[in-house]
Amino acid sequence: GAVVSQHPSWVICKSGTSVKIECRSLDFQATTMFWYRQFPKQSLMLMATSNEGSKATYEQGVEKDKFLINHASLTLSTLTVTSAHPEDSSFYICSARVSSANNEQFFGPGTRLTVL
Amino acid sequence: QKEVEQNSGPLSVPEGAIASLNCTYSDRVSQSFFWYRQYSGKSPELIMSIYSNGDKEDGRFTAQLNKASQYVSLLIRDSQPSDSATYLCAVSLATGGFKTIFGAGTRLFVKA
Q: DSSP assignment, residue A70?
């Protein structure tokens, strides 16, 4: 399957700081990437859909000014959590869609964010 | 009604048995159906994709799709303790930019 990487795999930061998470498709070009958040023992929650060269589409209830998404190339999307607070502590996972024909998504390994 | 529904489990089966995981979806014109496996603390891993009615087999896994009943299932034959994980059913809608909707997942325990 297609390979998606994320960096960093985990991060601990102080409340009020900003954290950037990178998502890369390593062996394919992804016009569409997705950002999810998952709290312990809960299901995946889609935060936003990231399209290369255009603005991200955010799901209802997700603050676009707090969760900044940039998809500047066909292999890289970034999520920046601005002014992070303890309630933002979660497991953030990106995925990339290989082809719009079959809609298969491949997930990165995730980034565990802890805000102190 | 949730768009993709799964029994949360846990589903417990003995080693070597067949594990049967079920999923129903609400969008009648959905086109693509997926099963992901997620180990605790890890991200989901795609294990099966199915696009047309019937069965699709891949090793110990068989996905079954019935569009008339809006039902998709995953059978795991000869279950192993290493199959213990949460299994997520996902459905790509025919509208809204082909967004993929995930079920909440079914936790499977395979007892040695």
A: E
